[in-house]
Amino acid sequence: MTITPLATLEGVTRRYGDVTALDDVDLRIEPGSLVGLLGPNGAGKSTVLSLLQGTRCPTTGTVTLFGGDPAQAVNRTRLGSTPQETALPPTLRVGEVVDFVGRHFADRVPTAALAEQFGFGDLLRRQTGSLSGGQQRRLAVALAFVGRPRLVLLDEPTTGLDVDARRTLWDAIRRQHELGATIVLTSHYLEEIEALAERVVVLGGGRVITDARLRDVLGLVGIHRVRLRSTDPGAVERLAGVVQASRDGDAVELDVRDADAFVRDLVRSEVPFTDLAVRGATLEEAFLTLTADARADVERSAA
Ligand SMILES: Nc1ncnc2c1ncn2[C@@H]1O[C@H](COP(=O)(O)OP(=O)(O)OP(=O)(O)O)[C@@H](O)[C@H]1O
Questions:
Q1: Disulfide check for 75: which of 68, 233, 238, 296 has CB 3.0–4.6 Å away?
Q2: How many angstroms is it from 22 CA to the middle of ligand 1?
């Protein structure tokens, strides 16, 4: 059975003068998914969101939102979004802001229910200007969900927040997803994508470098990080399959392509070791390898 996507980009190229921000990009957002859009500065993430919001048009290619053209307001009524900047009227109370925004929708989440989902039930009578940065951000993200949107776009939702505020907001976003929301989020924080997204779209230089399930992206790179202690760290580093190594006294940290083969070689070599630990690559490690591979491809084709 084919699932009808909520939004699509087909063969989309977007230029700003001489700059090609997106180059022949295909993307499908399926209902119920939580998609992380990841990429370095200037990769084209915000351009993707602005095309879906209908605030920009593709130079070539087609963008659809709920089957229609996002540039037409009627097709955006079930779209929720939070821009990068939080701008709340400082003298209005939290409850008043939620009611004000909620009144624009025929079927809205009641204020008390939304406040409970986002953990600001005790702040409803506070003026928004008196909230902390994390609380303001949580409110701004909550507002994107008040009209029961079919799709929510979050542009770097936790930028500038401290660790605790970020985690609280992650929990709230995860909860919305569990309640059935479809969410696309961009982030500079790799651990944010790792904590939230099921699917990762890595953009680099305006192209989709990879579009896969999070665990497949991590598996795609295949690098494992090995930690151990050895009285002969140099011998450990010289074993086959070591991509890179660093050392602190007798503690050695290695990236290896095939962890099983490495451990077999290590045991066979009879180099003394203790405290062996092996784990898969983090998204950050996978991401760096993927973008480095893409850069090498671009350089090869340019040459
Ligand atoms: N209005 C504009 N005029 C000219 N160039 C632009 C404009 N908007 C974006 N660009 C360029 O298009 C490219 C993609 O920008 P975009 O903002 O989509 O990337 P991004 O991945 O969101 O970056 P960041 O993480 O820094 O927000 C960049 O080279 C950027 O400089």
A1: 68
A2: 9
**135 plus 231 within the same structural domain:** no
Please tell me the total count of domains within the chain: 2
- pTM confidence score: 0.79
- CATH code of the domain containing 258: 3.30.70
Q: Output the domain CATH number for residue 29.
A: 3.40.50.300
Interval 200-223: pLDDT, tens:
898 888 889 888 888 777 666 667
Ligand 1 interacting residues, C-beta cut-off 6 A: 16, 19, 21, 39, 41-47
Q: What is the dihedral of CA 139, 55, 207, 137, to 10 degrees?
A: -10
Nearest CA to ligand 1 atom 23: 42
